[in-house]
């Protein structure tokens, strides 16, 4: 694919689907970038969130283009596996929780953020409540924007795969840069809205926003623990009817397990199969998009990239008794095959 084609593919993916999935995954970093904009720094208050979001997106663009160039040069060897992504999501959850505690006025969190050049989260007020804060620096949105490359959403992984297949630094940088540009309109709207909302609230409803951030932190942490395979392997009982319908044995004696990967989850999500039998997993898609196009098996450290519509076969060998969890690349839609 030529450079123009790579640009269009990356921008199209970012514009059509990447903005929603990436915004959900990277909400904590985006909130942190604009959290100090309200009431801090020179210039009209209405323009401060715009500046912070612009710096955030510029840093995000630079880091993703650098990663794309590296992927184009050395291939998929530098792509993070499920456990690494799980650890990064757990880190993103910690960032979300830190900003929530900052909004609630938790002094250790506020001191920690201010140590990085961040003004108080309560506009017009310093930690002692008497003196106005010093102007915040742009270091925070730069660092957080660059850090988004460490917390990829499912569609980012698809863009990274396209960068790998470009086999050139220029092609990889173009496709990843175009992907970020495609997500920029939605990221910009969300970032400016959050920044201006914080400025308008001025402490009156910040507790509600803090609770929402804590909820998002818990959701992100749960996704990270799933991706890392660090949650208990137990779970709900599988459906016998689904197992009978989607698990079969072909003429060669191979056990074939079929799972549909759809936009709203897996069908079925829970299955029972025979242990110690040569097994092939068949993954089917039908106009599937976003993070559901990357099927992740944490216990094997494996990501399977799926076409939007089609069938993909994955050899599982002869699994022993136990539960094999699976999920989308972001850890949001879990499922499992229980081998007995």
From TrEMBL:
<feature type="transmembrane region" description="Helical">
    <location>
        <begin position="87"/>
        <end position="106"/>
    </location>
</feature>
<feature type="transmembrane region" description="Helical">
    <location>
        <begin position="205"/>
        <end position="222"/>
    </location>
</feature>
<dbReference type="InterPro" id="IPR008972">
    <property type="entry name" value="Cupredoxin"/>
</dbReference>
<keyword id="KW-1133">Transmembrane helix</keyword>
<keyword id="KW-0812">Transmembrane</keyword>
<feature type="transmembrane region" description="Helical">
    <location>
        <begin position="169"/>
        <end position="193"/>
    </location>
</feature>
<feature type="region of interest" description="Disordered">
    <location>
        <begin position="114"/>
        <end position="136"/>
    </location>
</feature>
<dbReference type="InterPro" id="IPR039447">
    <property type="entry name" value="UreH-like_TM_dom"/>
</dbReference>
<feature type="transmembrane region" description="Helical">
    <location>
        <begin position="142"/>
        <end position="163"/>
    </location>
</feature>
<keyword id="KW-0472">Membrane</keyword>
<feature type="domain" description="Urease accessory protein UreH-like transmembrane">
    <location>
        <begin position="15"/>
        <end position="218"/>
    </location>
</feature>
<protein>
    <submittedName>
        <fullName>Sulfite exporter TauE/SafE family protein</fullName>
    </submittedName>
</protein>
<dbReference type="Pfam" id="PF13386">
    <property type="entry name" value="DsbD_2"/>
</dbReference>
């Amino acid at each position: 694919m030529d450079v123009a084609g790579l640009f269009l593919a990356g921008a199209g993916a970012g514009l059509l689907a990447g903005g929603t999935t990436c915004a959900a995954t990277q909400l904590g970093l985006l909130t942190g970038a604009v959290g100090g904009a309200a009431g801090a720094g020179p210039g009209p208050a209405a323009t401060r969130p715009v500046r912070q979001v612009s710096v955030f997106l510029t840093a995000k663009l630079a880091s993703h283009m650098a990663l794309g160039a590296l992927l184009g040069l050395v291939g998929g060897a530098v792509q993070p596996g499920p456990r690494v992504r799980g650890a990064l999501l757990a880190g993103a959850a910690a960032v979300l929780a830190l900003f929530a505690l900052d909004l609630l006025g938790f002094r250790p969190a506020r001191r920690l953020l201010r140590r990085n050049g961040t003004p108080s989260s309560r506009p017009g007020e310093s930690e002692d409540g008497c003196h106005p804060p010093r102007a915040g620096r742009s270091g925070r949105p730069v660092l957080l924007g660059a850090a988004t490359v460490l917390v990829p959403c499912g569609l980012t992984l698809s863009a990274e795969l396209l960068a790998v297949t470009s086999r050139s630094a220029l092609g990889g940088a173009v496709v990843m840069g175009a992907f970020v540009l495609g997500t920029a309109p939605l990221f910009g709207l969300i970032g400016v809205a959050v920044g201006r909302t914080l400025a308008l609230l001025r402490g009156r409803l910040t507790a509600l926003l803090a609770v929402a951030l804590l909820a998002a932190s818990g959701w992100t942490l749960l996704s990270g623990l799933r991706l890392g395979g660090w949650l208990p392997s137990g779970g709900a009982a599988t459906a016998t009817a689904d197992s009978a319908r989607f698990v079969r044995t072909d003429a060669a004696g191979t056990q074939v397990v079929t799972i549909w990967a759809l936009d709203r989850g897996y069908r079925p999500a829970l299955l029972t199969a025979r242990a110690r039998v040569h097994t092939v997993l068949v993954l089917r898609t039908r106009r599937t998009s976003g993070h559901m196009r990357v099927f992740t098996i944490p216990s094997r450290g494996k990501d399977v990239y799926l076409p939007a519509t089609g069938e993909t076969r994955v050899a599982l060998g002869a699994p022993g008794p136990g539960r094999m969890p699976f999920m989308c690349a972001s850890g949001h839609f879990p499922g499992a095959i229980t081998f007995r």
